[in-house]
Amino acid sequence: MLKITTVVACKNWAKGQVAFVPTMGALHAGHVSLINLAKKTADKVIVSIFVNPEQFGPNEDFVSYPRQLEQDLLLLEQVGVDAVFIPDNNEIYPLKNKYKITPNCLADDLCGKFRPGHFSGVSTVVLKLLNCIKPDFLVLGAKDYQQVVIVKNLIRDFLLDCKVVIAPIAREDNGLAMSSRNAYLDIRDRDNARHLYKALQSIKSLITQGENVNKACEKYKNYLIKYGYRLDYLLVRNADDLSNNLSDNLVILVAAWLGSVRLIDNLVCRR
Amino acid sequence: MLKITTVVACKNWAKGQVAFVPTMGALHAGHVSLINLAKKTADKVIVSIFVNPEQFGPNEDFVSYPRQLEQDLLLLEQVGVDAVFIPDNNEIYPLKNKYKITPNCLADDLCGKFRPGHFSGVSTVVLKLLNCIKPDFLVLGAKDYQQVVIVKNLIRDFLLDCKVVIAPIAREDNGLAMSSRNAYLDIRDRDNARHLYKALQSIKSLITQGENVNKACEKYKNYLIKYGYRLDYLLVRNADDLSNNLSDNLVILVAAWLGSVRLIDNLVCRR
Asked: Which of A125, A158, A160 is the best mutation test for B, with the most CBs of B within 10 A?
């Protein structure tokens, strides 16, 4: 496996069809499922590990975000990726006065409402990585549903050719969506974490039976609060564009705190 | 000459070394000098004609901006460019909820102070055009000095390989920097327009003789006002980064209104 640390080396690398899996490291089985999908999609697979400071708010967990590079590299070697891109901040942000991408209105909606600047940081780093790697395919996880929609639009709006491939959410045995931040959960919260996916499944079941969308959500807000969750949001949106235009193709979206950990999850639901 | 109107066709076109000259049409001898420099720089030359709505303020001249496509195409054919890219708005802005690039602090400085959003619009369209054409060289005119600095930084910050080539300012016989907007000048203003470059030359002469930079500018502010100019700014900056850190390498910058026309000009000055 080739280890690339500079933008120049990275650009020189890619020939042939390339699938790219961007990560912030602290790799888990969810990332492995993305990589396996990438391997099915293209001849060559490159993974980036870059904890992007610009997508963390001032009160967020940039400093404490789990970093375990040696372990990650071992995993990537085992899974069989072709290259890993591990740039430092100076490679990705060569200028002090940074240029930023401001995404459309979705940036201040849903998670963006609770994490100001987050999707601007995500959009900016994704465009930089795409410019650098020029992949044919970008593989993203469905857990970050809003991120997927914003990045898809970003690629379309900036006239890039890269095709976005979505990997389904990888879940623990108890249903909890895999995330690097799950490592922060204490034992009690780890048990309670199963209720998040349970709530989504129950809401989906109610909606497909014809229940009113808002009523279904309200019912399971109370359910989650009972198990110690503090909700940022639990709601239903249009699955295609995340608008409030509720067609047949819906997505149930949740973001909630359990102890010191912010969990997000979602479930697509046709009615 | 190939006429390309879609992003897809444009991307398929470029093979080999390509120099790109972005324009808003209404081509004049200044553009021709850019094209000639592009021809010296690379094997193939592509010119874009796109009056970018996003870089005009709500009270600016987007609607009345001179458009003369047939005449422009004839000129490009004569000058001998290889391709012209003439996209419509839907090609460049495929999404209604547009993503925008916010440049660093320079965006609200100098011309940005008087044209809010202008450099965000310029940065966004330039990045789109670069993504689309993927040129090896981008040829810009030195008249838009601030634009050159912002675009250079944009390319560096977004990790693109494109090299920026600067063409010196093309001037009328009387010294007026060539601009599509000069066509708006009435006869009397057209005569007075020569004083703008005269003022820059005189300030440069004073500075190289050791005169204080601010005093030199103040003197010629009054000179220009006498000839009917309404000044947005006349000042001296660091020629490398447009900061107020006045080293040996300076640039004298001016933006001023003559009748209904906003003129800009600049002159580099070493001391």
From this structure: A158
- Helix axes of B69-79 and B29-41: crossing angle, nearest 10 degrees: 40
Secondary structure class of B109 (helix, strand, coil): coil
- Name the CATH code of domain A2-167 (choices 3.30.559.30, 3.40.50.10330, 3.40.190.120, 3.40.50.620): 3.40.50.620
Give the angle subtended at the CA of B149 by the CAs of B143 and B155, to the nearest 5°.
Answer: 125
* Residue A175 binned pLDDT confidence (cut-offs 50, 70, 90): very high
Q: Which residues contact A36 (CB under 8 A, 6 or more apart)?
A: A79
- Judged by CB atoms closer than 8 Å, whether chains meet at B99 and A131 is answered as no
The H or E element that residue B231 is part of is: strand B230-238
Q: What distance in Å separates residue B111's CA from the closest CA in chain A? A: 18
**Strand (E) or helix (H) holding A185:** none
Q: In chain B, how long is the greatest CA-to-CA distance?
A: 55
Q: What is the pLDDT of residues A140-160, one digit of tens each?
A: 999 999 999 999 999 999 989
CATH 3.30.1300.10 fits A180-270, yes or no: yes
Residue in A36, A71, A38, A69 with CA at minimum distance from that of residue A51: A69
A143 within 8 A of A117, measured Cβ to Cβ: no
- Would you kindly state where each structural domain of chain B is located, as residue ranges? 2-167, 180-270
End-to-end CA distance of chain A: 46
